[in-house]
Structure formats: structure tokens, C-alpha cells
Amino acid sequence: MIPDSKASKQPRFIPFGYKLMITYMVFIIIPVIAIGYFSHSMYEDSIRVQTRNNIQGTLLQMKDNIEYKLSDVERISNMLYEDYSLITQLRIYEKGWDTYERTTKIVRPKFSIAVNATSLNIAMYIFLANESFPEIYHGKFLQERPDLLERNYNLYHLSRIEDKAWHRNFPAEQFGETMTWQRVERDEDFGRISLLRRLVDSQNPLDLNEIGFMRFSVRIDELFQGLDYSKIGEGSALVIKDEYGKILYQSGVLPEGEAHGEAEASSHLYLKIQESVGQSWAMTAYVPMTVMEQDSAKVRMFILLICMLCLIVFTFAGMFISRYFSIRMNKIVYVLNAFREGELHKRMGYRGKDEFGQIAAALNEMGRDIDHLIDQVYLTQIEKKEAELESLQAQINPHFLYNTLSSISRLAQFGEIEKLQRMVLDLAKFYRLSLNEGRTVIPIRSELEQVQAYMNIQTTKFGDAVSIFYDIDPSIIKYDTIKLILQPFIENALEHAWFGNSIHITVSGKLHGEDIIFKIIDDGTGMSPDKLKQIFDPVEGLNTGYGIRNVNSRIQLHYGSKYGVSIGSRPGIGTTVQIVIPAWREK
């Protein structure tokens, strides 16, 4: 007797060989993991310190780059501030040709030399208290365009800025030291910032007299060009703020908490490093902790790889040792598993006179006995299955013949001899194809001819009220099928699915992978879910869906339970019958 699927399931257990391997590996892996953990902890702290120092060094390099550019602008201002000959010329108030000559030959050349003495694109504005010098400028004073004035200068009278807040509030002069960086006039509109500084008459050091004012406007992105967040890690952010906390320049995206003024919101996710820049600015770096952990992750990965390597080596060693001790047991398990899978021809080739030798001999003998018994039971089941198939096949033809003879009787009753003659000829053709020399399996071509003969009978009976459309893939014609699997569903639609004065039926056949799918679709009354359930799960005393179950049973008896009939239907819309059979040819 062959055990069923439930009885064949064996309880899960750890094989004998694995038990040996696990025991061996536990005493190896635990020390390896412990060593890896403590090694990682020791390295992690040192690597964090080293990573922080590396980032700090990068920030110092950025700071030096920015301060070099700031000092370069300050150097230009010093060229004018400390030029005693220029100061001497600026405090002379003579007019006429002498002033023109001093302007063109002394003053303007000095300004031109200064504004071009650097690689930065500076727009220079000079405001002189001595109004004997003429104003020389490009564009308009109120609507200035510093981007168009780069590497050039405008010369104005000091009176133009006396009422400006940035000039009025400028700090008291300390010789050689008083200067500030501010955004004035239209600097912010053009993304610029200006170095502001007085021109003073230092003839009397105790009483420094303002004789002019200098403004050097520089593009912020040029000034802070070296400020790049990618140099300290992806996801970082760099920002320069002035003495009032206003952002002058930003590289990268600020943490959400910092962007909204919530300094503590991101303190556990970002490392904040700050450096002073220039006289009063602050450069702040926001470095994600993930960047700090990158080097630590490398060490962690290295230790993990070492542990994995040890694990692989020890696993193979454990497998070899366990296989060495469990090879005899594995031979027995292999043959038993083969028997469970139905491979009863497997035998144990074991030599020896110990207990394992006796087990091998008993298993080989048992396999031969079970194989012989299964052959006998299998032949009996095949004979029973063929008998059931023939019985089901014999039930369908009388059912169709009964319906057709009833139609012929009605035609004879109404005296329609011509239609009656066509129906009788089509009926004869149908049964000639159906009998097919007693074969159960026929070509799909013959099955479709049977459907055509049947529909000729129905169109003779109903005329234009019945129409059928065929959508058949030519590639399925070469395969076989058991007979009479399509006609019963067409007959069922004509008997029960009429909705109005006409009905339309579509018969399709397609190749889908290794299966053939037939569909019979009608636009009839459809069926309710309860009626569909009764077809495949009939209630005692009701004979609903006998023909459908007949076809489904014949298909499953011949091809197996994975094939058969399925139905989809909605009341008032119609019904779709799907029939699935394998794409094969009978030998």
C-alpha cells in the first residue's frame, strides 16, 4: 500500500552529521566572534579621533584659502591706504588744468594699478572728500551694476554717501586697522560683498582726517570658491556666517534643525566643527555621523571578512569531519529518501558484516518487494480508470441525441422537410465524427468539425437568431483532445442562456505555454454565484450542471486534476467557460 502525502511527511530533525559539525563549530566560532568584537571596539575609538582630525585639517585648508583671498583684497586697499604720494595729491584743492593733470597722470593710474593687482574680479568704488577732482563713473550711482564694473572703478564725491547708514555707522578710525566686510548697496542682489575702508590723511597721526572712502566689491562665490562640502564627505554642509549670524555662503544642504534655528535638533546626527575666518566671521561644518563612521566601517568590514573566512574554513573542516563519521548513516538515509520519492530501483552498495550490512540487505529486499506490489496495484488502478472514462463517455452521447431528436420531431410536426433533411444529415455527420472508430482521443480538428456540425443543426433550427464566431489559433490543430468537450457547453448555452430574441456565441482556442485553453463565451442571461456553486458542488436531489461535471470529470480522469473546466458568469451579462487541456499528441 502506497502511503498518502500526509503520512509521507517526516518530522523535522537535525541530521547526525550536522550535530557533529555544529558541536565542532560552536567551540571555534564563539572565540572568533569574541576576538572580533573586542578588536573592533579598540579600533573604533582611535579611528573616530583620526577621522575628526582629518576633517579638522581639511577645514583649516579651506580657511587658509579664504583668508588668503580676503587678505588679497585687503592688500589692494593697503596699496592705496599707505600710498603717501596719493594721499598728498588727494588733499590738494587746486582747480583747473593742474587738477586735471594730477587726476589723469597720478590719481587714476594708481587706482587702475590697484584694481588690477589681484586675480580676483574686484569692482572698486572710490569716494573723495576733495570735490576739485571730477567724478568718473560707469552706469548709475543709485542703480549700480557691480558685475559690469569688475576690474574697473568708479570715482565719486564723498558727499554721495554721507547720509548712508553703512558710512555713518562706520567704526572710529585706528590707523592701518579699521576696515570691515559688509553687504552694502546692491551687493546682496548680485551675490557680492564689499570691503569698506577709509582713506585718511596721516600727516597728523593724532588727528586722522578722512579724505576719502574705499569700497571693494567681490563676488561671494569667487571669494568662497574653496568652500566645498564634498571635500569632507557626502551629506555634509559648510556655511559662512557674519558677526550677526547671517549666512553669507553655504555649500551643501544644512540639517533640518539648523535650517530652522533648532541647534539641538540634529546634534545626535551631525558633528559640528567651527572655525573663525577673517576678523569676525565663523565657518561651520556639519558632518554626518555616517562620514565619521566610514573609516570605522572599513575596520568593521575587515574584521567581518576575517570572521567569515574563518567561518568558511571551519565549516568545510566541520563538514569533512562530520561526513567522515556519518557516511554510513547517509547511505541509509539516501536509499530511504529514494524509496519515499518512488525510486524503488535504488539499492545500497554496502560491503560489510556489521549492523549496517544487515540494514542494507533488509532495505534492498524491501525495495524489491514494494516495487513488485506497486506494479500490481498500478495496473489495477489503470484498468479501473479506463472503465470509468468509458462509462462517462457513454453518458454524453444519449444526452445530445435526445435533444436533437426532439428538435427533429418538432420540425417534422411543422412540416419543414428541407430543414429536417439538413438536420438529419448534420446529425449523421456529428455521430460519424463522434464515434471515430471507438477512439476516446481525437484530433482537435475533428472536435471543431463536431462543433460545426452541431451548430449547423442549431442554425437550421433557429435561423439568424443564433450566431457563432470562431477564434482558433492554427497552431493547436496538430494536437489531440478527448472528444466532446466543447459541444456540451454550446448546447448548454442554447438551452439555458437565451436573453431576448437572439444569442451570440464565441469559441476560441489558444496555445498558452504547454497548455491549450478553449473558451466558450455567450451574451446570455448569465448565472448567479449560488447556481455556479451548485454546478461543481451539487445539492442532493438537484440535477444542475450534470453535463458540465461530466466533461470536467472526463478531462481530469484522462489528463489529471490540474486540468478541467472553470466558469465565470454574471447575471444579465453572460457566461464564459474555460477548458484547459495539455498540448500533446496521443501515441
From TrEMBL:
Q: What reaction gets catalysed by this protein?
A: ATP + protein L-histidine = ADP + protein N-phospho-L-histidine
Does the keyword field hold Cell membrane? Answer: yes
Give the location in the cell. Answer: Cell membrane
Q: Tell me which UniProt keywords the record has, alphabetically.
A: ATP-binding, Cell membrane, Kinase, Membrane, Nucleotide-binding, Phosphoprotein, Transferase, Transmembrane, Transmembrane helix, Two-component regulatory system
Per the record, the domain of life is Bacteria
Q: What is its EC number?
A: 2.7.13.3
Cellular component per GO? plasma membrane
Mainly localized where?
Answer: membrane
Q: Where is the Histidine kinase domain?
A: 482-585
Transmembrane segments in this chain: where? 21-43, 301-321
Q: Which Gene3D superfamilies match?
A: 6.10.340.10, Histidine kinase-like ATPase, C-terminal domain
Identify its membrane topology class: Multi-pass membrane protein
GO molecular function (one): ATP binding
Q: What is this protein called?
A: histidine kinase
According to the entry, what is the taxonomic lineage of the organism? Bacteria, Bacillati, Bacillota, Bacilli, Bacillales
